[in-house]
Design goal:
The protein is of the alpha+beta class. The protein has a single domain (7-116), classed as Nucleotidyltransferase, domain 5. It contains 4 helices and 4 strands; from the N terminus they run H-E-E-E-H-H-E-H. It has a 4-stranded mixed β-sheet. The protein starts with 6 loop residues before the first helix and ends in a 5-residue tail after the last helix.
Length: 121
């Protein structure tokens, strides 16, 4: 463990290492970024180093539907919107990269919303 590394950084590094061992060339990864007020997700093709689709609680489509960007309902809506955009980009199978966040609450709600939208992981 590098000196001064936080628990979040340690979990993030461990999660990314596990994803890389699964052979990341097969499927793009869904990366989650969470703050106190908003949540953002993107599907990244690591081989080409390009973002295929993204969604956030700051998108106008989501902003109209939600009262606050920090709720599980907002996270589920973001997951569903991302699934729609991923299908337009031709992506159906992904690997879920929760980063250093625990798979609980809003992070779990994003995953469930993406699954409801038709993404497989």
């Amino acid at each position: 463990m590098p000196k001064g590394e936080s628990n979040y950084q340690r979990r993030s590094r461990r999660t990314r290492t596990r994803l890389n061992s699964i052979n990341r060339t097969l499927r793009p990864r869904l990366s989650v970024t969470r703050s106190n007020k908003n949540i953002a997700v993107q599907i990244i093709d690591d081989v080409k180093s390009v973002t295929l689709a993204s969604a956030s609680t700051l998108d106008p489509e989501i902003r109209e539907k939600i009262k606050s960007g920090s709720t599980q309902e907002a996270a589920t809506a973001v997951g569903k919107l991302l699934a729609e955009r991923a299908k337009k980009a031709g992506v159906s199978e992904i690997q879920f990269d929760r980063g250093g966040y625990l798979y609980h609450g809003r992070v779990k709600a994003v995953a469930e919303g993406a699954r409801e939208g038709g993404l497989q992981f």
